């Protein structure tokens, strides 16, 4: 399957769209001329002009004509009005694969606002897709063919790691990796601030903090058979500096706090889904 030949239309040109578009062009080898971004205003025109993709303003319907793949990148509450604009085109014989990245919006909801259209996938990407380091979960409508799964995997693996999950777990993917970059940015910010508190200059501390998170993540990914606690123990010399730090994090409730945060985000995704 040659993804470089596909016509892809994004509905909504905000942060997540831009991350995917840049990822597809820079890491997926997709020709910008095959990509169309449809937005309600000219606010993002310069961004997409610079990327040399087609930019349609205020006309979702014409933007999806001839598309092989339509990607909903609008806010969850926009699913119905946007679908009303495009559903006459979607159900014509063009037969595009419709992908939603909207938090909480179920495949049933998407299919029903598209008058029962079946070729739908629910995807939860994240913004590091922009640098080809995304983490993405997806689920397919039972009406999709096996080749649709292959297509989704091929397309999304060009911008990061892709995991297929049961649809009822997409909200959990949202809590962990969809929202996850924001938690990690907070951690890097805090680590950098802590370096400044302890005398490092801001730029040095930021660079050391970010590289430490990157390096630790690389160690976890490249050693799948080693328990993460073992990797941590390898840093914790007996009566050394690290164990003073990690026991403080434990005492202050880092682990419980992260679990609460992910559960709050997962619950919020479920709530967004119910309001559609
Ligand atoms: N930002 C993120 O990290 C992630 C976002 N998502 C999902 O992606 C979707 C978009 O989120 P963001 O990009 O963060 O929001 P955003 O607010 O940056 O982008 C939404 C875009 O939709 C456009 N829009 C509004 N009405 C429209 C219409 N009628 N037709 C076409 N476009 C319209 C807006 O102009 C805006 O550019 C949401 O459903 C969100 O749940 C999913 C994963 C991660
Ligand atoms: O905050 C949000 O609702 C979106 C979905 C996952 C990340 N950003």
From TrEMBL:
It catalyses: L-proline + NAD(+) = (S)-1-pyrroline-5-carboxylate + NADH + 2 H(+); L-proline + NADP(+) = (S)-1-pyrroline-5-carboxylate + NADPH + 2 H(+). GO terms for molecular function: pyrroline-5-carboxylate reductase activity. It comes from the Eukaryota. Its main location: cytoplasm. Residues 167-272 form the Pyrroline-5-carboxylate reductase dimerisation domain. The keyword Oxidoreductase applies. The keyword Signal does not apply. This is Pyrroline-5-carboxylate reductase. NADPH binds at residue 60. Belongs to the pyrroline-5-carboxylate reductase family. GO terms for biological process: L-proline biosynthetic process.
